[in-house]
């Protein structure tokens, strides 16, 4: 999965993993577990640790012959490079691109309000307002728009009111199967 926070990655990832009947590995699940370390380590270190754990778990699943869906922003080329180095893995990027910015904003701020109002603690590190998201994206300084080379990619509009998560999953599964048949 690839996309900015609140873009619908997790919703789409859950539907895709269910459709493929394979494990879902979520970077935020790992990152959420680092809350207790926030006082002793820099945020960047904890994010790097989260990715290192995620890649190791993905590698083990691939070694076992399993497919996995990885829910992560995939915001830097180094993250994609780490995935493409996994022996035996066919990497396919599902990029979540919300076409309706107002709907994207509404969803992001709804999630942020839930966390701020005593949610489970999950997502403490995620932007809670549109302004926080804009600062985060500006901080990326364009590094999220990198060249992906020959890695297959499908872009989905996660705010299209005519297309729900299951329809996105069906589209993505068809895309993945078409690339699998080309490899065999």
From TrEMBL:
One Pfam assignment: AAA_33
Official protein name in the record: Uncharacterized protein
PANTHER family linked to this entry: OS07G0160300 PROTEIN (PTHR37807:SF3)
Species assigned in the record: Digitaria exilis
Matching SUPFAM superfamilies: P-loop containing nucleoside triphosphate hydrolases
Superkingdom classification of source: Eukaryota
